[in-house]
Specification:
341 residues, Rossmann fold, Chromosomal Replication Initiator Protein Dnaa, Chain: A, 5-stranded parallel beta sheet, binds adenosine-5'-diphosphate, binds magnesium ion
């Protein structure tokens, strides 16, 4: 099973109030895949809170308990790519048959289905087939099913069938336990005060916590210094500063253009083609709301337009977010990508 990563297990997943329901439901599913009422099991929560770790652990545990079962882990993004490829290569049947032959499907980050209606349609059929044959479906998402945007209603209603369990930011002691266990498995026994200091100061998510530890290790190796509280303090100062750096207008423009698959030069040009205007207006709106750039500078950045054009663009975007569902989910999608960077 190349898609399952052996490094993610229940053994190295620390339990806390933040993940107890999801963990125990996941463990139950791993004993009796398809045989509990947790079908589908949907694990949702913010970035870096351990969703992928947990569902991978479920997959590995199922393989351990039921070696003969076919388990597939696939990110939603990859599934979407595979679908497009199969359209191109005229291998849709193979694609569908492959997934319908599984005993367990684990699909990560289903919010990435947003606005991909054909792919959702195919997954809807695969889902029904598997569910009717008593096969296990495990999903993760960054939102609870009721708040997922850009997903068709019939698929959403399926997502609500089983159990949805959230993952939250771990409390201080759980963060400390995670840190200690990670470091310990690398043969490093951190001083308690360092563990406490880092866990106290990094409280967004677990991935960031790990990032901080990697920097700390690197600093200690580089400067041939022991990891102590002083080193932790000086390292964390930079770490916190870097992780909150400002988003640039260049970056916004590139992200929006990538999203709509339009060339950056077009957005800066005079063209009034509809899709270009849309990308330009959304970029202006995001530049206004996410950077401290003045209206005048935003205007000149987008091919020498004046500040009233920028105001008009922002108003248009605000109006469309109100009135046009599809448009709103485009903007939300892009905003999510911005925040992940
Ligand atoms: P998500 O999929 O929610 O974005 P990940 O599963 O990728 O988050 O987790 C980010 C990192 O944090 C991974 O390296 C994972 O092993 C670690 N992690 C998260 N939660 C825990 C936990 N409860 N115990 C141990 N490690 C954890
Ligand atoms: Mg993940």
């Amino acid at each position: 099973n190349p898609q399952l990563n052996q490094n993610y297990t229940f053994d190295n997943f620390i339990e806390g109030d933040c993940n107890r329901l999801a963990r125990s439901a996941g463990y139950a599913v791993a004993q009796k895949p398809g045989g509990t009422s947790f079908n589908p099991l949907m694990v949702y929560g913010g970035v870096g809170l351990g969703k992928t770790h947990l569902v991978q652990a479920i997959g590995n545990e199922i393989k351990k308990n039921h070696p003969d079962k076919l388990v597939i882990y696939v990110s939603c993004e990859r599934f979407c790519q595979q679908f497009v490829d199969s359209l191109k290569n005229r291998t849709i049947n193979d694609f569908v048959n492959f997934y319908q032959a599984m005993d367990v499907i684990i699909m990560d980050d289903v919010h990435n289905f947003a606005n991909k209606e054909k792919t959702q349609d195919i997954f809807f059929h695969i889902f029904n087939h598997l569910h009717q044959s008593g096969k296990q479906i495990i999903l993760t998402s960054d939102q609870p099913p009721k708040d997922l945007s850009g997903l068709v209603e019939r698929l959403l209603s399926r997502f609500k069938w089983g159990l949805s369990a959230d993952m939250q930011v771990p409390d201080l002691e759980t963060r400390m336990a995670i840190l200690q266990k990670k470091m310990y498995s690398d043969g490093i026994d951190l001083p308690y005060e360092v563990v406490e200091y880092v866990a106290n100061n990094i409280d967004n998510n677990v991935r960031e916590l790990e990032g901080a530890m990697v920097s700390l290790l690197a600093q200690s190796t580089l400067n041939k210094k022991e990891i102590d509280l002083n080193l932790a303090k000086s390292m964390l100062k930079n770490f916190i500063k870097n992780s909150h750096k400002e988003i640039s207008i260049d970056y916004i423009q590139k992200l929006v253009c990538d999203y709509f698959e339009v060339p950056v030069e077009m957005v800066k040009s005079k063209t009034r083609k509809r899709e270009i205007v849309q990308a330009r207006q959304i970029s202006m709106y995001l530049a206004k709301s996410h950077t401290k750039t003045s209206l005048k500078s935003i205007g000149s950045f987008f091919g020498g337009r004046d500040h009233s054009t920028v105001i008009y663009a922002c108003q248009t975007v605000v109006d469309l977010i109100e009135t046009d569902k599809k448009f709103r989910s485009y903007v939300q999608d892009i905003q999510k990508k911005l925040k992940l960077s």
